[in-house]
Amino acid sequence: MAQSKAINPGPAASGRRRRHRFGLVAHLAAVAVLSALLVFAIELTVRGSLAPTIVFLFEQPFRPGLVTIALFALTIIGLDALLGRRLMGLLLVAPVSLLLAFIGQQKSLYLGDPLYPADFLYSRQIVQLMPLLVRERPLSAAAMAAGLALAALCVAALWRAWRRHGTPLTCRSRVTRLAAVVPALAFFVSIMDYQTFSWTRDRLQIIPMMWDQKENYNSNGFALAFALNVPMAKVAPPAGYGEAAVAAIAAPETRRSVPSEAPDIIMVMSESFWDPARLPGVRIAPDPIPTVRIHSSGKVFSPEFGGMTANVEFEALTGFSNAFLPYGSIPYQQYVRTSLPSLAAFLGSEGYATRAIHPFEGWFWNRETVYDAFGFDRFMSVEKLPALATRGPLVSDAALTSEIIREADMIVRPFFFFAVTLQNHGPYEPNRYDERRLKVRFPPDAAARESIRSFAEGMRDADDGLAVLLDWAAKRQRPTVIAFFGDHLPPLGPVYPATGMLKGNVAPRKGTAEEMAAVRETPLVIWSNRTGMQSVGTVSPALLPYHVLTAAGISHPYYTGFLGRVREGYGVVERGLLIDAGGRATTDWSRADAEIDPLIRDYRMLQYDMLFGKRHGAQRFFPETVPHKVARASRRL
Predict the structure, then answer these.
(1) Entry pTM
(2) 109 Cα distance to chain centroid
(3) What is the mean pLDDT of residues 48-75?
(4) For position 296, which CATH number holds?
């Protein structure tokens, strides 16, 4: 009898198995449907329109949209197994992913770039800048805050209710689900490394487009593109990198040399400094930037538009290029972890006093850590500066200029100052300044016109600051070099389409050399009180060290030697664009299948060696690369 029962478990056990199978099928079906709805909501949030969302999800089988749905479903099932309740994972995945999608949509609206994983390394900056954004759109900001608070309360309530009343999973069901889900998720993670070829990823039509992130997010969807950007924190070495490859780079004959009367050097990177007269049809009277126009040395071809100041700063101080780093990366946040070559490190090793000056918090863009790694003696952030007068909501350019002059007058030995202004940070709300010195004609839209006026008033203040600095330097007995440039075009948003300059609020990332020049070029002045204005043409920020040191009569194996060779060949070295000394442009040069000029290959090799590699070339190209803290201590002794 007992043997018979063992063979035939009976109708009760069969019923339990049927209910278990039905429950599993129902669970999987519910997760699939909810995952599809979630992906639809995410893409609709990011894209802001129904038609492209439908195209993304239903254009053809095995598109990234279906892969994304499968990934969300697997993730939810795995979380359900861990939490012990059906659909419990949805209450974790949905709020987080929708919040990320919303943040990504807002970032794209303001800066023109998608949301990258690296953005969360500087989340404090987003919080710090919120008051400025709230000032521009107070009602929208209030509505967003209320909506987020309400959503958080709803999620908390659902979580509590589901923990009490949700359908529990048996221990066997949880183990079964995990056994199926974990290998599948591990497989998908393995094919997300865009730097290696994946047959499966290719068959699923997931094509990493790291050279064009807008198209990457558009084609692969928000979730997959975001995941593809995770590995960008790891920079792959150039092909053939090693001691022999670095040794093969021709060593420059240039040696370290500073004139007996070492010139003082002041570099001013002016926030969003640009010529507003370049807006089509716009007429501003009087001219807001007369000083820059008279002393113009050329243009800086910025690697950024409307923001990401730190990336421009990185190039100008190190002579390295963002063109050789993963798209969307921020070196200040991701890669500066130890002492690095820079103008400050070199000049400091020659006995210069080196100061970085910026009237904002030291943690912003991780500057406190970065400037120390670059070898600056002091970083004079707002915490270490005296109280400076404001104009509008931020520290004025006039006050910062006065502080630069005051600090310079107190220093006996030669000095190198790198100052970053703050006054002209966006947004450029109407009536930002009480005093109105400029008249703006066109566009007819009053809000756009007043926004242009606010921006132009800031440009006039920055130009006045440069005039004061040049007048002070002209009267000095000591040789003095001043470099002044804008970091990027301003984030004027709706002004661009209102004037017909752009179709949208932000500039495209790719285009012809002429199209890119219109949205990347900012004014540049390099001036010496001994030789006057220097004419340099249009250059990437990474080539500024060469021109500044040349104006100062200083030589260096890398900054004037190797970069001098680069400058002979190219004026612009940008991720999607090279412009040679004759003005000829090469696009898409950085694609894996493109043939790279040996000079650019060496440039990339040497940069990788110093940033990520074993510094095989330090002795030949950066002889001052003693650990900065030791070098500074020895100077004090």
Answers:
(1) 0.77
(2) 15
(3) 85
(4) 3.40.720.10
* Alpha helices per DSSP H over 490-533: 495-499, 513-520
Q: Kindly state whether residue 496 falls inside one of the protein's structural domains.
A: yes
Q: Is residue 257 part of a domain?
A: no
Residue 256 lies inside a defined structural domain of this protein = no
Say if residue 90 is in the same domain as residue 227: yes
**Where residue 631 falls among pLDDT bands split at 50, 70, 90?**
very low
For residues 163 and 291, membership in a common domain is answered with no
Helices 64-83, 50-58: crossing angle, 10 deg rounding: 80
> Helix, strand, or coil here: 586?
strand
Residue 330 backbone dihedrals phi, psi, to 5 degrees? -125, 100
Handedness of CA 613, 617, 619, 622 (dihedral sign): negative
Mean pLDDT to the nearest integer, 570-599: 88
Tokens of 323: 């063109």
User: 371 and 269 in one domain?
Assistant: yes
Q: Is residue 637 part of a domain?
A: no
Rounded Cα gap, residues 606 and 447, in angstroms: 48
What are the backbone angles phi and psi of residue 118, rounded to the nearest 5°?
-65, -20
Q: Which domain holds residue 405?
A: 262-631
Quickly list H helices, 254-361: 290-295, 309-318, 331-334, 343-349
What distance in Å separates the CA atoms of residue 450 and residue 431, rounded to the nearest whole number? 7
633 CB-contact burial (10 Å; exposed 0-12 / middle 13-18 / buried 19+): exposed
Burial class (CB in 10 A: 0-12, 13-18, 19+), 248: exposed
Q: Return the structure tokens found at 496.
A: 């661009």
CA distances from 515 to 418, 507, 585 (A): 30, 10, 12
Does residue 598 register a pLDDT over 50? yes
User: Is residue 475 located within the same domain as residue 567?
Assistant: yes
The position carrying tokens 């795995």 is 78
Residues 553, 467 within the same domain: yes
Residues 93 and 72: beta-carbon distance below 8 Å: yes
DSSP 257: B
Q: CA 179, CA 172: separation in Å to the nearest integer?
A: 11
Alpha-carbon span 302 to 22, nearest angstrom: 60
Phi and psi angles of residue 532, each rounded to the nearest 5 degrees, phi first = 80, -150
pLDDT at residue 418, as a whole number: 98
* Distant-in-sequence, close-in-space partners of 59: CB < 8 Å, separation ≥ 6: 65
- C-alpha closest to that of 259 among 59, 532, 552: 552
Residue 179 contacts by C-beta under 8 Å, 6 or more apart in sequence? none
Which helix (H) or strand (E) segment is 298 a member of? strand 298-301
Q: How many domains does the chain have?
A: 2
Which residues neighbour 320 within 8 Å (Cβ) at sequence distance 6 or greater? 314, 331, 542, 607, 610, 611
CA gap 561, 255 in Å, rounded: 8
**Do 305 and 391 share a domain, yes or no?**
yes
Q: What is the dihedral of CA 489, 318, 214, 596, to 10 degrees?
A: 120
Convert the pLDDT of each residue in 70-82 to its tens digit: 999 999 999 989 9
Q: What is the rounded CA–CA span in Å between residue 224 and residue 245?
A: 36
d(CA 471, CA 266): 14
**CA gap 190, 181 in Å, rounded:** 14
Nearest to 313 by CA among 346, 269, 273, 348: 269
For residue 254, what are the contacts with CB-CB under 8 A and spacing of at least 6? 555, 556, 557, 560, 561, 564
> How is residue 591 annotated by DSSP?
S
d(CA 450, CA 453) in angstroms, rounded, equals 5
Structure tokens that stand for 285 in this block = 């009277």
Angle at 155 between CA 27 and CA 33, to 5 degrees: 30
Q: Which of 69-78, 95-104, 163-172 has the lowest mean pLDDT?
A: 163-172
